[in-house]
Every structure is written in structure tokens, then in C-alpha cells.
Amino acid sequence: METVRVALESKRVPVVDAEVVFAPQSTVRVEGTDAHTVLKLSESLEDLDDVQAVYANYDIPDEIMEAISAA
To answer: Judging by beta carbons within 10 Å of its beta carbon (0-12, 13-18, 19+), is residue 60 exposed, middle or buried?
Structure first.
């Protein structure tokens, strides 16, 4: 990835963001109170000073995410 970034910059192509992330190959659908619990856990992990990144493979439907956000 670094090689590609350097090559682009050497051709004067602006690179806005360059990072490697983990993308899940499969996801787990989470609904109801479990969705709220999973989101709370993710937020708690992100708030820890020693944690640099949190990756997860959960899939929460949009309507449930909206209901949780509104609460």
C-alpha cells in the first residue's frame, strides 16, 4: 500500500487518506436488545486509551440503528 501511495504522490496525484482496514468476509445480523448491547460494547472499547481501532462484523438493520439513535 505504501508503494502505491508513494507512486501516486510522485505523479502529483493527491492522496487524501491511505490506511489499511479489516473488512469482514461474513457478518452477523444483530437485532433487538442485542444490537444496543453490541453498540455499547463497541463504544466502550473505542473509549479506552490503549485501543487504537475497533473492528466488528455485526450487521444491524437501519431501522434498528435509527431507533437506538433516537433513544
So the answer is: buried
Supply the pLDDT for residue 31.
94
- 8-state DSSP, 49: T
> What value, to the nearest 5°, has the Cα angle with vertex 14 and ends 51 and 46?
10
CA dist 64 and 71 (Å) reads 11
pLDDT of residue 28: 97
Residue at grid coordinates 455499547: 40
Q: Mind listing the pLDDT tens digit for each residue in 6-18? A: 999 999 999 998 8
Sequence-distant (6+) residues with CB within 8 A of 47 are none
Separation between Cα atoms, residue 45 and residue 37, nearest integer Å? 12
